[in-house]
Amino acid sequence: MHRGGYPVDLSTVEQNVLAVGEDEGSAGSMPRQPFVPDDFRDRPFSQSEALKNGLTVHMLNGPAWKRVLPRVWVHRDHQMSDADRILAASLAMPARAQLSNISRIQALGLDVGDVFPVHFTVAGDLHLDLPDVFLHRTKMLPPTDETGVTPTAAFIQYCADARLIDAIKVGDWLLHRRHMTTIGLAELARRDKWRPGARQALRVLPHLDARSRSMPESEVRVMLVFSGLPAPEVNVSLVVDEELIGIVDLLVRCVMLALEYEGRQHAGTTQQFNRDIHRYAVFRRHAVEYLQITKEVLDRPKVMVRRVHARMSELGYAGPAPVFAERWASLFQLIPTGPVRPSPLQNGKGDPRTARRREGRKAHRRQAG
Length: 369
Hints:
Blueprint: E1 2-3, E2 6-7, H1 10-20, E3 45-46, H2 47-52, H3 57-60, E4 65-69, E5 72-75, H4 82-92, E6 98-99, H5 101-106, E7 118-123, E8 133-138, H6 151-159, H7 164-176, H8 182-191, H9 198-204, H10 215-226, E9 233-240, E10 243-252, E11 257-262, H11 270-285, E12 289-294, H12 295-298, H13 301-314, H14 326-330, H15 355-368
Helix pairs in contact: 6-7, 6-9, 7-10, 8-9
C-alpha cells in the first residue's frame, strides 16, 4: 500500500495501533499487550532507534517503557547493569563526545571503581548538563576507536587521578587482555606528554607486568616489591623433577615459595574446589612450599607482607625485612608528575635505536677521563 507516494508496511501499522489502544476493546475482553520489539527488552536504546523499529513517542511515554536519560529508554522490566548505564550515557551524548577515562576501561569488562560519573572527552566546547556524566574538554582528541578513546588513551587519562597501586592493577589487566601494549603506552604518553596523566603513566610503566592474570595477583606482587622484598615471578610454569606440576600465581624463586591467591572463584563451584584440592596435593607430593593468600589477608597489606616474609625466613631467606616507609606509602598515594627516567622499553638500555648515541657518550667519558 502507498500513502502520499511512500510505501507503508501494514503489519507495522497494525501492531502500533494495537499497542496504542491496549486499554481499549470490547467489554470483558483482555487488554492488549503493548508492542515490544525483542531487541529492546534487555538493553537501553535511543529514541531514534525506537522510531525506526516501529515505536512512537506516544508508546514510549506509556507504561511499557521508562526514560533513563534524555532520549534514552529501557523496558520497564529491565534491570540496568553497570554496562547498561555506560551504554545509556553514550546514547544520550552527541556523537563527537567520546567515552573515556575509567568508563572506557569499564566498558571492556573491568569491574573497578564507581560507574558514576560516566566520563566523556570532547574536542572544543560542548555545553551539556546530564546527570551522572563528567565531560572533559581538550584542544585535541586522543586516539579513538569505535567505542570511544582507545584503551591506551583511557589508561593515560585514568592515571591523572589514580593511586599508584590502582594504576598498576588496571594497567596489568589491560596488558594481559591485549587491550594495550607497553610500547604503545610509552609512545603515546611521550608523544602527548602535555595531556593530563601522561607523566603519571610513564611512572607506572616500569611496574607493569602483562603476565598477571588478575588484579589481586598484581596487588600482591607490587606490595612485596614496594616493601623491599624480592620481586616474585608471575604465573610461572613450575617444573620439579622434570615434571610440570602446574602454573603458580607468584613464585619467590630464591626460596621456592609459591604464593596462591584464593578469591571467591575458588569456592564458587565444586569443580573448582576439587581442582584446588588436587593442585595442592601435587604441591605437597613434590615438597613444593606454598602460601595461600585470601581476600581477607590481602585487605590488610602489612599483615600480608609480614606473613610472606615470615614464611620466606622459615625457608632460609636471609635478606632484609620489609620496610614500610616512603616507598611503601607511595603505593597508596596519587601518582606524582615529576621528572621521569626513560623506560627500558623506550630509548633505554638495549634499544638499538639509541645504541649509537649511548656508545658515543661512553667514548666521550673515556676521553674526558
